[in-house]
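FAQ: What does a ligand-bound record look like?

Like this one, built around uridine-5'-diphosphate-glucose:
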Amino acid sequence: MEDSHSVPLHHCHVHKLRANLFKTYALVHVLALGAIFYYRGAFFFNETPLKPYNLVHPFPWFLIFAAEILLSFLWILKQPMYWRPVTRTAFPERLPKDEELPRIDVFICTTDPNKEPTFEVMNTVVSAMALDYPGEKLSVYLSDDGCASVTLEGMKEAWAFAAWWLPFCRRYNVKTICPLAYFDQPEEESQSEEFIQDRNAVKERYEFFKKQLRSKTRTNGTNDANTTGPPDHSSLIQVIAGSSSIEANKPSTLNPQKLEMPLLVYVAREKRPSHPHNFKAGALNTLLRVSSILSNAPYILVLDCDMYCNDSISARQAMCFHLDPKISPTLGWVQYPQKFHTVNESDVYDSEMKSVWLVSMTSLYADVVLVYMVLSMHSCIYETLWPGSDGLQGPVISGTNLYVKREALYGIPINHGTSISSTYDCTSGNNLAKLKDCFGSSNEFIKSIGQIHKPKAIKDIELSSTLIREAQFLASCNYEKGTKWGEQVGYRYDSVVEDALTGYFLQSKGWRSVYLNPTTAQFLGSAITNLNDQLIQGTRWQSGLLEIGLSNNCPLIHSPSKMQFLHKMCASWVVFWSLDCLWSFCFATIPPLCFLYGTPLYPKVSDPFFLAFAFVFASSRLKTLNDTLIIGRSPRVWLNEHRIHLIKTVTCCVYGSLDCMMNKLGLRQANFLPTNKAGGVDENKYYKMGKFDFRTSHMFLIPLVTLVILNLACFLGGVARVIVARNWDAMFAQMFLSFYVLIMSFPVIEGVVFRKDDGRVPSLATLMSTAASLVFLSLGYFSLLH
Ligand SMILES: O=c1ccn([C@@H]2O[C@H](COP(=O)(O)OP(=O)(O)O[C@H]3O[C@H](CO)[C@@H](O)[C@H](O)[C@H]3O)[C@@H](O)[C@H]2O)c(=O)[nH]1
Ligand SMILES: [Mn+2]
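The answer part, i.e. the structure of the complex:
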């Protein structure tokens, strides 16, 4: 052990030059911001107004100024994200021997077999079992919130297939450990005879596995009582174990002497209509408790059912950080990015979320800044959020793909370190009573806390009926009553983005995290490739984030907090993201209306202030284009990312904020509608063609189409007016912006006017939006021309 620690297990590279370049760039933009504020402010204070002030109504000027101030405030909040960019590398080959590695529990959540196809979910399960980690130290738990028999049956099939798959992966050092992904790849050539034979045998077994699952889904997938009515069932926990029949026909080469299979456990917690079940957070907390009495690993890999382990090394990479004595006392989690295997080149919905995970650190020297000031409704978020926050105190929990420390989730204060077993000793009655108030009444659970770091061989667990009964008790819906689960212990319940809430809460307690983005994608998921689900998901996120922002958990005011001020700023920007809709609505309506009615809002081309706007516009466009090209994407991808952000800002941000307000006022209950991963051929056909699929609710279409029609009308009318009045100098900025907006909105215009297929914007939505834009036009007429 001594030896293995003399060389570092990981390396952290700080990009100082880039940070400095970025700061310089930001400074120039702040100066431009100052110029713009002066230009706007002078309107209210200057006795002899500069041109074109005498032409302008104070009301739109005031609104646009307010929008710019809000925008600048939000922009400032996120700046620290770029001040210390870092890149990390792990050296798993330097880890101590396998015997010295800690145990890992894998938690996978699924909820609805109709939306989350069982075969794909089981591929996630098998891929997690196949991680390159000692089998006796790995346990995989699946939480099935749907309590569907097809899922339980699927688990048994998965175990049986894993008994073939794992030895195959180990023997031939297979890197792509998800069977679905592996067998989708072209077959490797020039392999040994033995390999080819084994691969064919495993492939045959895989086809059988697939057939079994598909037929089970057809026969009982949708007929389950629990997937139709409200959930009402007791808890069901089963340790999946193989039978000897699966060994039949297995080639002897795939029967190694020393292969331990990981423990595999199916958990469906109790659900009753009268009890809130707190969605995924509730499911994860149940898994925390159930696993504590079975395997009780100190580290937990959390996965969504739609995210499989693509490569085998992630567990060892993560341990390079968790086992580094320098950082491990405060290290809460190691976060990997979410990458997707279902995205295509054009990726019209930016399903890949390039801005969050992908944009390479090499482009961190610049950012979108004042573009917001001039660029009507575009919220072009090309930032590198997670890599950047790693340079502060670490990325927030991002739902899936993280190796988190069990202690951190239990709310155990940092620095207990070695004394955890004595602090959580339940032999003293007084102590025990206190612990029960916090963690609930299970003695077994409380005993397990003190034993987190004690070695425990999973195979030694005596899977007695008493233990299973205890696990069922831990998974019952009354267990958390009167305890601190969901408030101080486990994942938090007060937001549907439980990941961000829990992450910020832990960071405020002093836990730190790291972001690891190795070249080979460690996890791959199925991205949402239809507009409707994108908008539903976006609305849920915005509602959940604002819920955090407007509560005591808001990172900016939460106290006491061990978050640095700069980190608090960035976290606050994330939770107030939905406020983008306020300024974007102003920008989407006021400049075009003023253009139509001949009211200039921006400096003349000949005015030096014009330069400030023009500089910001051009430099930020070039910067974001550069970001896209650097990660190897085409300019078309850049355009698409703008477009989808435009759409989401005027839909998800608006409805997310409304949803949050209604939750707060008690008019609505929080809801976590899982996204549909079953996307049929028909649903994906437009995505594959690189076209938008407007088959979504009118609620989403109307604000979007209204704004586009309004901008189109204003552009046409405004240009006519400029031609007549010959004031292009004063109106150039607005004319250019309207034109830019139209280019950006082209898919919507196409969906309204040109498309004839079923993915077009329905006529009713167009009609209602036209009526709404007429209202805006008349409002503009009365306020600007009267
Ligand atoms: O009542 C529920 C609802 C959802 N889930 C599971 O939660 C996961 C995420 O749900 P999904 O429909 O895939 O939502 P996404 O919007 O894709 O999830 C993102 O956003 C969530 C927060 O809203 C995070 O928890 C996720 O990790 C993150 O990937 C899935 O495995 C679901 O099966 C449950 O277990 N119980
Ligand atoms: Mn998902």
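Follow-up question: can I read anything off the structure? Yes, for example: Residues 359-383 have pLDDT under 50 and may be disordered.
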